[in-house]
Amino acid sequence: MAEEKFSVIIIGAGPAGSTAAYLLALEGLDVLLIERGESPGCKNMYGGRMYSYALNRIIPGFWEEAPIERRVVTERVSFVTPERTATLNFQDAHWNKEPYHSFILLRAEFDAWLAGKAEEEGAILACGIRVDDVIKEGDRVIGVRAGDDEIFADVVIVADGGNSLITERAGLREKPQPAQVATGVKQIIELSQDLINQRFQIASDEGVANLFVGACTREVPGGGFLYTNKNSISLGLVVNMAAVQQMKYKIGELLEDFKSHPHIAPYIEGGQVMEYSAHLVPEAGYNMMPRLFDAGILVAGDAAGFVINLGYLVRGMDLAIASGEAAAKTILEARAKEDYSRQGLSIYQDHLKNNVVLRDLEMYRQAPHFLENSRLYQTYPHLVTSMLGEMFTVEGTKPEHIMGRALKQVKNAGVGITNLAKDAWKGGRSL
Ligand SMILES: Cc1cc2nc3c(=O)[nH]c(=O)nc-3n(C[C@H](O)[C@H](O)[C@H](O)COP(=O)(O)OP(=O)(O)OC[C@H]3O[C@@H](n4cnc5c(N)ncnc54)[C@H](O)[C@@H]3O)c2cc1C
Fold first, then answer.
1. Domain boundaries in the chain?
2. What is the pLDDT of residues 239-264, one digit of tens each?
3. Fewest CB within 10 angstroms: 56, 81, 209, 416, which?
4. Which CATH number is associated with domain 4-69+105-176+286-364?
5. pTM higher than 0.85, yes or no?
6. Residue 113, SS3?
């Protein structure tokens, strides 16, 4: 591939890169989409669900053709202690209708499908090639280097995911601090469709998304997740990297503990582990963004830190797709003016603001700091489950009104009303 020149080179065929490739190829540009995996998605892992609005804007009704596991009809958030689980279970009849709210997907199939859409429009997908660096002429990026090959383009989109070495090598960001990233581990546990439907009380195309906080991470900052696929369950944990470095045990041990929790074990009983994977999650959101553009280069998706984790929901796929869309629009405008300078590409920021990415990241910029509060993982799961335990246990002892029970539990938890009120205030304003 020596001495070739494209209009656009995109590094990484995840949702950010493939969306940009699809939209640019649709407009007739020469697009090279480079993926280090043997096929798109083969190395990619995530929890399990994609909010649909961003892709529906680009490929209306995409669920008709995309490889979907199930559409989410039930949302659950659970506080867990070793013996107890308090779960908020939420359903909305609107999510059963188009445009569906969110879908559970497996990445190997979904990423391959989306990259395939870009190929259908004429993008060249080159798999099994790892880009090592960008090539610069002065301050301007003019191409990429992969092994001995040098490939040139008017502009390069970096969409190589959360552990983006290319953004670091291009001088757009420093290596993230451990507190700014998390480690995710996940198992895909095979079970029959009938068993999943029975155990979760759902129909074959319906899915459950469940997030967990508390004992699932042995109370260190992080959380658990469970998503129902068609014939398997995705179960995993995300733990802050700074906490992982201080733990005396391995994150895999936490996952084994989580699997044997009395709330989880019955769901996965009899299941076979089909896949184990681990991945990095950029967690600091707005506070860890690199320079998003420079002469000849744009950064999209996780490489730009575009992930929102609020504890009760995780968004990365929708932001990756929306940022791929913003990158494509930016390049089309820059091309019309034949201006790929830093100034010419600066409209990227406006597109990111207008299409949810920067708007939402900015709105939740305090969330990562709030989620560092250890009481969320150590104190409140016990408080909530003890309170409910008292309310629902009848054993002939003298009962008490809810207020009396609540004050007693707050006192037992040693949190203090002032801290409780402060946390509620801060949580309400940051999440
Ligand atoms: C444990 C965990 C749970 C998550 N749960 C959810 C969830 O439920 N919902 C949600 O919306 N988001 C979730 N996310 C976040 C979501 O996975 C990401 O936001 C999303 O995958 C970002 O897409 P991307 O295209 O930017 O990057 P990626 O999906 O990481 O894709 C990057 C691509 O670049 C390729 N690549 C990397 N380096 C190179 C290189 N040098 N040369 C060539 N190719 C390269 C990779 O192989 C990969 O295909 C989760 C993440 C994790 C880790």
1. 4-69+105-176+286-364, 179-282, 370-430
2. 998 888 888 888 999 999 999 999 99
3. 416
4. 3.50.50.60
5. yes
6. helix
